[in-house]
Amino acid sequence: MRNRVEKPPGTAAADDGSNRIEQGPKNFPEMRTALGYSRQGEPLSLNRAPAKEIAPWVARVYSTKVELAPGDQVSCGLISDVPVMRVLFSGAWTAQTRDGHGRYGPSALLFGAHTKRMPVTVRDSFSTVGVWLKPGAMAALKGPDVASTLDRIILYDHIYGNEEWGSSRKLLEWFDPGGTPKRWMRVGEKLVAQLIELAGGKRPDPIIEQFDKAAFRDPNLNIGEFAKEHAIERRRLERLIKHGYGQTATQVLRRARALDIAAHLRGVADDSEAEDAALRFFDQSHMIREFKTFFGMTPRQFATTPQPFMAITLEARQARRLETIGRMEPNAPPPWRDPDYYALRRAAVR
């Protein structure tokens, strides 16, 4: 029997503004975007479901375009449950990866999925476009072993790139950094469609897609029961999950629980699910312990300090999650975006 767990801070159904983090020179660089804001005032991305022809391989496409004052630097972190093919158009980036401290300028990169928070900084205004790959897509696209990419950032040239098709330099030219976020996303979809064709069009194993959906619905699911319901031997299922995610089923589900709580803490989740998300843990100490394992800080610390990169990635994941489990129509406006705040800040950018 699970003990009752308090709702994480900042997840009340009615937001009176007390949990909003005000940006400004006293505590954090001012960040401006025309692509939307969370209720806490953090810039968000333009993100949506992929085109139907690439949907079996692609989880989400997104773009960001954020203005900072010259010389301003944002320090935050990233955690993603899937690999992301990401193009950096601007900004001077650093990240603490499995390979050590990395520095990145304009380039095309593969960000592997994360087993824990990856510290990331960016100096000056930044813009990016990204394609989130579904579990199992890396193998279907004849990429590297997923486990070898965890917590790493790899130059695109070292995976798929060549001078005739898709090197980092060529991708930057084709995307046109001076273009619009919507155009970047369409170009990204076309390039992935070409990659799928070059790889032979093999789709990820359908059982992994079913597990991914089930984990979104209930990250406390029983692996044995899932295997029985889908008529697959448990050991085979566990091997397929390890092959598709690069991690065990238990690790995948633990991370899913932590990511759901984190989204509520940043105000980029459906408030009506907050209590259920909290009750997935045995008690408050269990939640705190698990959260610190993945994020390196307590839930309260996470909720009360700016987390702009986290808000961007967590929001896109939550939008995909709600669409996947049928709680939100594809590409419908998510319930957590603040239209009034968004309109005010958009006017300020203009």
User: Largest sheet, if any?
Assistant: 8 strands, antiparallel
Distance between the termini: 54 Å
- SSE topology string: EEEEEEEHHEHHHHHHHHHHH
Low-pLDDT stretches are: 1-7, 9-26, 341-350
Total beta strand runs: 8
Compute the CA-based radius of gyration. 19 Å
How much helix is in the residues?
25-40%
Outline, from the CA principal axes? globular
* Average pLDDT number: 89
Oligomer: single chain
Description of the structure:
The chain has 350 residues and is of the alpha+beta class. The chain is built from 13 helices and 8 strands. Strands 1, 2, 3, 4, 5, 6, 7 and 8 form an 8-stranded antiparallel beta sheet that branches. A hairpin with a 2-residue loop joins strand 4 and strand 5. Helix 8 crosses helix 10 and helix 8 crosses helix 12. The longest helix is centred in the middle third of the chain and has 18 residues. The radius of gyration is 19 Å and the shape is globular.
